[in-house]
Amino acid sequence: MPDLVFPQLSSGATAQFPLRKVRSYHVVLNTTEDGQTFSYFDPTSGLVSWNLLLTNLTEAESASLETLFEGCYGRWASFLFLDPADNLLGYSADLTNSIWTLPPGVAVAGGIADPQGGIGAFQITNQSQAVATFGQSLAAPPNFTYVFSAFVQASAPASCSLVRSGPSEEVLEAVSLPTQWTRVTSTKQLTSPGSSVTFGFQLAPGQQMQVFGPQLEAQPEASEYYRPTYGSGGVYPNAYFTMDAMTVTADAPGQFSTLISIEATR
Questions:
Q1: Closest of 15, 73, 1 to residue 217, by C-alpha
Q2: What is the pLDDT along the chain (266 residues), one digit of tens a residue?
Q3: Can the peptide bond before residue 18 be classed as cis, meaning omega within 30 degrees of 0?
Q4: What angle do CA 69, 75, 78 make, to 5 degrees?
Q5: Which domains are assigned to the chain?
C-alpha cells in the first residue's frame, strides 16, 4: 500500500454528493486501404477520473487534504484512493477467482439461484474439522471506516461471523443465516493502523452457506444497491491529483470547501 492515502472525512465517508466519476476506455481503430474500419477494445487500458466537491469541512479535514496534496507535490506523486462510487472488493461476482482466499478444506461452487432472479450466487462449504475464514485481502488502511455487506442464506437456520482483520487486530460480527435471502452488514471498526485489511466469512466445521453480492464500501452505511465487480475493485493505489493548485475557501468560521480532481489508470 502506498504511504500516501486519500483521507476520510470525520463522517467516515471519502466524498460528498454530488460527485462526478468518468471512466474512459482505449479503442484502437484501423482503417484499411479499401476503406474498411476495424476497431479493437483494449481491456487492459482505462482511465478513471473523479471530481469531488467537498463542503462544510472542518479545519482538521481541510488540513489533511492540503497535507496530502503537498506530500504528493501536486500532480507529481501517486496516492491510494478508495473509490466512493464502487465496490472495493474485486471479483465480487466470482467467488471462485483466486483473489479470494480459499482455506484448506473449504469448497466454493457457483451456479446457485440468487435473490435477483439469476444464478450468480455461490455455495461455500467448510469440509474441514476447524473453523475457516473465506475472504479477500486489500492493500488499504485497516482502521478506515468500512461497511461490509452480502446476501446470505442457509438450508436450515444458523449463524456465521462476518470477519474483518488487520495485521494486529480482528473483529467478528455474528449474523443470522435464515433460509431466505437476507442482506447482512458489518460496521464494526478496527482501530490499529497497517497496510492491509481482510474481509470475509467465518464458517464453523462442516458448515455450509450460500452467498451473493459481497460488497465493501469506505463509508459508514451500506448503499441501497449491490454493485458487482468482474475484475479489480475500487481500490486505486496509483491515483493522482490533476490540479496544479489546491484552492480552499473559507465559507464561514471553521467551515471550508474545496474542489478536488483525481484520476487513475486501470
A1: 15
A2: 678 999 999 999 999 999 999 988 778 888 888 888 878 777 666 899 999 999 999 999 999 999 999 999 999 999 999 999 999 999 999 999 999 999 999 999 999 999 999 999 999 999 999 999 999 999 999 999 999 999 999 999 999 999 999 999 999 999 999 999 999 999 999 999 999 999 999 999 999 999 999 999 999 999 999 999 999 999 999 999 999 999 999 999 999 999 999 999 97
A3: yes
A4: 75
A5: 19-85+236-265 (no CATH), 106-233 (2.60.120.260)
Alpha carbon of 265 to those of 47, 65, 173, 218: distances in Å? Answer: 5, 21, 35, 20
Query: In angstroms, what CA-CA distances link 66 with 6, 56, 101, 247, 257?
Result: 11, 15, 37, 9, 12
User: Which grid coordinates belong to 50?
Assistant: 473523479
* Residue from 99, 94, 172, 96 nearest 133 by CA: 172
Q: Where are the alpha helices (DSSP H) in 40-173?
A: 59-71
Using alpha carbons only, what angle is made at residue 121 by residues 120 and 127, rounded to the nearest 5 degrees?
140
Our separate counts of H helices and E strands in the chain read 1, 17
